[in-house]
Write a structure and sequence with these properties.
heterodimer; A: 482 residues; alpha+beta; Arc Repressor Mutant, subunit A; 3 domains; nine-stranded mixed beta sheet; three-stranded antiparallel beta sheet; 16 helices; 16 strands; B: 485 residues; alpha/beta; Amidase signature (AS) enzymes; eight-stranded mixed beta sheet; 39% helix; globular; EC 6.3.5.7 (chain B); nucleotide-binding (chain B); transferase (chain B)
Amino acid sequence: MSYDSKTWEVVIGLEVHCQLLTQTKIFSGAATAYGAAPNTQADAVTLGLPGVLPVLNKTALEYAVKFGLAVDAQIAQRCVFARKHYFYPDLPKGYQISQYELPIVHHGHLDIEIDGGVKRIGITRAHLEEDAGKSLHEGYSKQTGIDLNRAGTPLIEIVSEPDIRSAAEAVAYLKKLHQLVVYLGVCDGNMQEGSFRCDANVSVRRRGETKFGTRTETKNVNSFRYVEKAIEFEIERQIDVIESGGKVVQETRLFNPDSGETRSMRSKEDANDYRYFPDPDLLPVVVTTADIERIRATMPELPQAKKERFIAQYGLPAYDAGVLTGEQALAEYYEAVVATSNGDAKTCANWVITDLLGALNKLGKDISASPISAARLAGLIARIADKTISGKIAKEVFEAMLAGEGDADTIIKAKGLVQITDESAIVKAIEDVMAKNPQQVADYRGGKDKLFGFFVGQAMKATQGKANPDALNRLLKEKLAG
Amino acid sequence: MHTQSIAELSAGLKAKKFSSRELTAHYLKRIESFDKQLNSYITVTAEQALAQADAADARLAQGQGGALTGIPLAQKDIFCTTGVRTSCASKMLDSFIAPYDATIVSKLHDEAGMVMLGKCNMDEFAMGSSTETSWYGPTANPWDVTRVPGGSSGGSVAAVAAGLAPAATASDTGGSIRQPAALTNLTGIKPTYGRVSRYGMIAFASSLDQAGVVARSAEDAAYVLQAMSGFDPRDSTSIERPVDDLLAGLNGSIKGLKIGLPTEYFAKGMSAGVQQRVAEAIEVFKKLGAEVKEISLPNSPLSVPTYYVVAPAEASSNLARFDGVRYGHRAQDVKNLEELYKRSRGEGFGAEVQRRIMIGTYVLSHGYYDAYYLQAQKLRKLIYEDFKRAFAEVDLVLGPTATDVAFKLGEKSDDPVAMYLNDIYTIAANLAGIPAMSLSCGFVDGLPVGLQLMGNYFSEARLLNAAHQYQQVTDFHKQMPKAFV
């Protein structure tokens, strides 16, 4: 951030298009799966053939309600689908079925953590609509290919209040929103495939101004990093325009990921008059209190609640709880480890966060593709808890598990890693070390306490690291004391 | 055979007096002989018809099939029919062969076993009251071939009136079943909005469009409407409610039936001849035991202006899909996308369709929506409330269907407003969504006059019963135009 934030205030509102994870399209029975051959998932309704009619997919409606409940929003008891008109080859009917005056979800909010504090971002509305198809320009000479597989895929467009004040806040909001829709199971969250994409409305004003500055809308930014870069670029561009005596033009802009810049796409004057009106093919949708309660009963535990529970139930620090609840699959993994390991919750958290996530990160793997199952990690922690192995040996076992050498017990047995708890064996090792290092014994006894670590290391080495560390410490102290 | 009722034809088929193939061939021959004068069909599906007839004969031979199995039927060219051009009488869809059947098409042909003779002419996209806006040229009225058959279902009525089909499907957005039925001496019924599926019927104005039937009597209409009606999960506006038995009640007495005569419909506008025939019809209903009283539909003068906001608005939206990209007419040698749209639509749509798209686009535009579309919706509610009050007092509302008998071809085609006023009596039923029908009540100078009956929601059986009782004591509906006997 290179602008002078004492002089300038940034105002950001985000519109997020989130594809709903339904099997079929929002108004027809055609499949929604990504990646099929072009136009193989375009039925008569998708193609907008003469005479076809839309029928609302009830699952899409339920998913929108779920989202609304998750952001503490009002769920409209009666919402209306409207037609939004514009001509484009990948929009088969010449209009998009969306919601305009009466959206399904309104007046919600999402709390984000920023600079060590919590900030509440208002969610103006979230409405249901159908996605358009795709226009393919590459590989066609003087032609455009149209793929209508995506056309009719259900979306919710989530519109925030202009409550966001920096690119960092925007990213924090988006990440939180992304986590939420994935948690809810209403969206796969795949940003590369366009399942979760963002339009950023950005304006700047001098501090103290009460009126918003003129805003620009940067369309279809599909990664957190790009959103950050696009917003930062826009902030600096707008400040430059104003500082050099110009005026920001209300317009739609496009972000170029290669240059990190935005460029003008169309001005307000060229904007479409969408001629919204209620779609006469679809009756107003009535959602009863009973419907809402039924949907509420199917809601999973949400990230914030889960985090708070992890802190309370497992006594974890907020940081650990935050990491572990970042993804539902990770939280489930952790809880499975705690439940079956008999280890203490914090030890389990350390293993999952430091060792497992570290290893997965190196492998570039997701928790769901972890080479070590929760049961196996629990098995390892259990062997530490029952003192079969030490924490140090456990790291070796962990590496072997990662390499696919089996469960902890198999590895411990195969490698002969069982911890030595027989005190006479430990005493013997200590006596050998002392016998071999008389000078160090003398120095230690002469007051060089630091040498204690040296003796621990030597004794451990002599037992191939298998000595029980507590017993070793205690016995070593006794022996060295003379 | 072409003078027989559907019940008679059905009995003849069951008794093996003739086969469906013979019956179908008879109609195909009549089409060949007479349709050059009328232009009532856009497409005749002779081969397919004979194949369907053979299939019907096979079913009948095994003692299977219902009342309509093997009976020929003409389809208005607004209903999608698999493998057959579905043009909506537009150059835009001249090359469009539907890959699917409208729900009513599968109900009538696949389920009921009727034989499709072909696709009937109409005003382009059902926009018109004379069938003169068709890309395929106008249809003539069999009662006087220099006159229009009404519209938009002009091809359907001309075919049935001339004995080129026993019955035909039709659609009614502002009177497109009733006004043509009135002008050609037929019985036509537009059921309650939502009673018949709109799936596969090319949309003009979605909140007003309703499919129905034109036939030579109320009884014939009842047979076909019975087979067309019912809930369709593919149409969100169709209504999940059992279909009444439309035939069972036809013969019931109408003694004590309360009929309302709206003051506003009789005040002015009707020609003297039409007024006379309607007055006579009222006397017939009185003789049948009906109680007739004057009622008021105070907001009926608002119908036409309301309609000409709502219908074009929805049409401008519904017709946006015809862009030359996926199907239909595509302009050649275009320089860019905008030109592709402009020229494809400019070339593919006729003048009346373009006019309505422009009106509709205007009334939905930013800054005008509240003044026009929203206001029209409020008026629509007033019109609906008029009927609600009326049906608290009476069972049916009776009046003229059209102001006058059929006008001359070309007489009004340059005056859109005069043309729009053709629907002055019929539009209200579409705006309110109530069922309404037209039946013949005599002639003026040899040209048919239509009587309109309107009923409360889902009162199709009562409407058809009243019409049938009227037709038991009158014989206007049995008359055929002399040139086509």
